[in-house]
Design a protein that fits this description.
- With 431 residues, the chain is mainly alpha-helical.
- It has two domains: 46 residues, no CATH class; 317 residues, Serine Threonine Protein Phosphatase 5, Tetratricopeptide repeat (Alpha Horseshoe).
- The protein is built from 16 helices and seven strands.
- The longest helix has 26 residues.
Length: 431
């Protein structure tokens, strides 16, 4: 799990080219071939304070990619999407039987998320106490905080890097969430000292993240207090870029698996198609809930088995993903307060957004989770909702038959295991 960001930095191709031209012009071919590791900078030559913003933004970009990947794999695991992929390692997510030795789970899901937490912690470790680094410290703490929340909600247990980038001990979801609360408080402290609009935006995102963690911990009064000052229209997104040479690092990971992406295997399942808007052929007056939009790609997914009904929430490599919002703050506050009249009013407000009439039943928590599953479709909130309210979250695939034949049945797992690789190489975790 080690990720020593100070060990080396790679130069961009243009600077590499300039370096080669200068080397040839000044030293000749013989001297050029004597150059050692021209693309590596020793740790001793890096000024952490001078490069503080670079480190902090790099850490948050690692989180952004890990977050998008978590959207995909937790959607498969929780039946928010179907697995149109041939890989047995990916179908294990749809079947809710993820083996700890699953290489896809290790390399695509666990390591990016653990690395994001580690990089956030490194920013705090490297820049802590330095003058004029408050904004970068806030960004590092925000990175670690949201990484810890995602880990706590999706994994059965976890771990996080310690000072000096040393591997940490095994942690329960409760311990991970408590550590996240501390990081979100650090964001608010550093952002207040930094001032400015960017700091204020990170501070509001931290308030939502803290409320999310506290709600998951069952500390409802504190959750209400955490989010009550977040404006309803606030949104904090992870940004993505359509750079053909760096889509794995910068592009939207959900689009990667959607129609037009690199591996078309992310399928909108029938239970969401039944309530959402089918925009195939760009209809003039589509019916259904506009929060769930999809289209028929006209072909099967990568597995040549499932029809590729593809999501339209993220229609390009450059589409952003909602990490925190004022709407989520309202959901947290309504659930935490658990007042029937307030909950019914809020449920009906959200039902109106989706073109539904007022709710007339008695299962208010079930309705709240139903509306939440629409508002936050494909945003990696569902695993936390399911573990917090296991009987209220809709469309969880029950144990039994899988929707594709010949791959085994659906298991009973409700969370993801720590990979065997982490246990094997982290001396603080028993194998």
């Amino acid at each position: 799990m080690r990720n020593r960001m100070t060990d080396r930095r790679f130069k961009s191709p243009i600077y590499m080219l300039i370096a080669v031209v200068l080397a040839l012009g000044l030293s000749g071919c013989d001297d050029f071939f004597e150059v050692r590791n021209p693309n590596v900078i020793d740790a001793e030559t890096v000024d952490a304070l001078q490069d503080g913003e670079l480190f902090a933004r790099s850490a948050f970009q690692t989180l952004s990619q890990a977050y998008g990947t978590m959207v995909v794999y937790t959607a498969w695991f929780s039946n928010e999407a179907w697995v149109g992929d041939t890989f047995p390692t990916r179908n294990q997510f749809g079947r809710r039987t993820v083996d700890p030795t699953n290489g896809t789970h290790t390399n695509d899901v666990w390591f990016p998320l653990a690395r994001a937490v580690a990089q956030g912690e490194q920013v705090l470790d490297l820049l802590g106490g330095a003058p004029e680094q408050e904004l970068n410290l806030a960004r590092g703490a925000l990175t670690s905080g949201f990484g810890l929340v995602l880990m706590a909600e999706a994994f059965c247990e976890g771990t996080m890097a310690q000072p000096g980038n040393e591997p940490g001990p095994l942690m329960t979801p409760t311990e991970l969430l408590e550590a996240a609360v501390v990081r979100f408080d650090r964001v608010m402290t550093e952002a207040s000292a930094a001032g400015g609009s960017e700091a204020a935006s990170m501070s509001n995102a931290a308030r939502v993240g803290k409320g999310r963690a506290l709600l998951q911990l069952g500390r409802t009064n504190e959750a209400i207090q955490a989010v009550q000052d977040v404006a309803p229209g606030f949104v904090f997104n992870t940004a993505h870029v359509d750079d053909p040479g760096a889509r794995g690092r910068l592009g939207n990971p959900v689009y990667f698996f959607s129609a037009g992406g690199s591996r078309e295997s992310f399928v909108v399942p029938p239970h969401y198609r039944a309530i959402g808007q089918n925009l195939t052929g760009d209809p003039a007056s589509p019916s259904g809930d506009p929060r769930i939009q999809f289209f028929d790609s006209g072909r099967d997914g990568q597995d040549n088995t499932l029809r590729l009904w593809s999501q339209l929430k993220y229609p390009s490599w450059a589409a952003s993903i909602d990490l925190a919002s004022g709407l989520e703050a309202r959901y947290i506050e309504v659930e935490a307060r658990n007042d029937p009249s307030e909950m019914l009013a809020f449920v009906n407000e959200r039902r109106a957004v989706g073109g539904q009439g007022p709710y007339e039943g008695s299962d208010l928590m079930g309705q709240l989770m139903d509306q939440r599953s629409r508002d936050f479709w494909l945003t990696a909130r569902r695993m936390g909702d399911w573990r917090r309210n296991p009987g209220a979250v809709p469309n969880i695939l029950p144990p039994g038959d899988y929707y594709k034949e010949g791959l085994g049945g659906v298991g009973t797992d409700t969370c993801l295991p720590i990979p065997f690789n982490e246990r094997q190489h982290n001396p603080n975790i028993p194998t």
